[in-house]
Amino acid sequence: MKWCCALFESRYKSAGERGSSILVGRDSLGKSEFTIQHRATHVDVTDIPSTDHPIAWVSETRIFFCPWCGRKLEDWYGASVERLSRENLRIERWDV
Q1: Can you give the residue range of the structural domain that contains 28?
Q2: Which entry of 4, 39, 63, 85 is 20 to 30 Å from 32 by CA?
Q3: Is the pTM of this model over 0.90?
Q4: Where are the beta strands (DSSP E) in the chain?
Q5: Strand, coil or helix: what is 11?
Q6: pLDDT, tens only, 34-81
Q7: Is 94 inside a domain boundary?
Q8: If you ran DSSP here, which 8-state letter would residue 65 be given?
């Protein structure tokens, strides 16, 4: 795989770990989707303590350009979406 930049590659490879990562997949319309995911804990952590305040353990934000080098992600990775997809790392979504 030829990556747009070293930081994008690093964040793609760190998916599932604590911190920020990149996920690649398809949206409900079948279009390429690129997401920054942030995890408060590693993907395997299941014993989460209760708190007095709500905490987002995982958040996801769709992106269209690389946050580090600015390349348009669809142009750079569009043909490789299936190979890069790791749907098991996404958070479950509900259509409202």
Answers
A1: 6-43+55-89
A2: 39
A3: no
A4: 19-26, 32-39, 58-63
A5: helix
A6: 999 998 877 677 777 777 877 667 889 999 999 999 999 999 999 999
A7: no
A8: B
